[in-house]
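Weekly modeling sync, notes
Attendees: AB, CL, MP (scribe)

Item 1: holo prediction request
CL wants a bound-state model with adenosine-3',5'-cyclic-monophosphate before deciding which constructs to order. AB pointed out that an apo prediction alone won't tell us much about the pocket. Agreed to run with the ligand included and paste results into these notes for async review.

Input as submitted:
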Amino acid sequence: MTEVPRVSLPEIRQRAFEILEHGRRRDVASRILDAILVVLIVANVAGVVAQTVPEVAAAYGAELLAFDRLCVAVFALEYAARIWVAPEHPMFERDGPLKARLRFAGTPMMVIDGIALVPFLLEVLFPASTLMPLTRIVRLLKLARYSPALATIGRVIASERRALLATLIILGGVMLTAAAVMLAVEGHKQPERLGDMTKTMWWAAAMLAKIGGGETEPVTALGRIVAAITVMLGIFCFALPVAIIGRGFYEEIRRRDFVVTFAMVARVPLFAKLDAPAIADLVGILRARTVPAGTIIMRKGDRGDAMYFIASGKVEVAPGRGATITLAEGDFFGEMALLSREPRTATVKAESSTDLLVLDADDFLRLLDRLPTFKDQIEAIVAARRSPGSETAPGV
Ligand code: CMP
């Protein structure tokens, strides 16, 4: 009789965590689950939109409702599973299981997942509510978990908040000034439309947003000049935040080919001993880059501007003399040039399609200053790599 291998509950939970929270890049089970959830989210939102069309609702109302219920059941299961595996999360490993789960439930993506389930409860409490489509399409936000672009919009707004606040203040100032000038110029001519600041502020806001002043045409030459200047200032005021967000968004997206997760960073042996806040910091700092097989990632003699951690895949290090060295998942390279401030000591080529976590030189040096243990570990490995016969010194 063949013996069935026994799998313990903690092992199942650990594996479930890896699948749900993307501990490993390119984990097949993780990808299949992601694909199913993404398809369900998109189909669910499409169903919600379709349901608002009376003819579709009349013909397929029951089917659409059944599908919505199915989606809610899957999302609820997903939510429960994520809460169940939370104690495996390296960020909360020092907390007890209950505290870990509560803290995990408060993380932004879990709050979104929770909100995505609220419409169902609302519909049970208030059937036939006109709020239904509004509350259900919140589920689209669940996609943020799978899209580096969506996940970065919050980061863009946060990093550009000063510039955005400045444009908001400029916009407010321009609106108030235009309103006050118009009140002075035409307030007495058109008291019913421009007779007080609330009326002229509405007029100024409409002019600035280029939706026109509606019925309110200036009746004096001076009034028309004020209106023309207000429209032009509007173009300037609205172009500014669009440009700021656009540029920030572009730069953030260039930084990330895939979403860097906490679990992914915690799996890198060099980071394993760091505490949770340090790992959380790294999640924001590391760039994600995917390179196809055969790509030369760096050439011997180049100037060093970043170091790399292998999240999945393999690279070949060719120092020029002696045998080449293969580095794989969890290993890192490109640290020597940053430490010594000398040119790259080897050419590094991707052996297979490889996912890399990239740490820019400035961030690397800051990290060395802040985390002495990290510095000691790296220096020990560099010493091993530099010593003769170091072909056996891949990583940690
Ligand atoms: P750097 O010199 O910045 O760029 C090339 C990288 O190849 C180097 O950093 C190391 O990360 C890596 N490397 C060079 N020699 C070895 C070695 N003997 N073993 C492992 N990695 C190496």
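Recorded for review: The chain has a mean pLDDT of 86.
Action items: CL to compare against the apo run; MP to circulate these notes.
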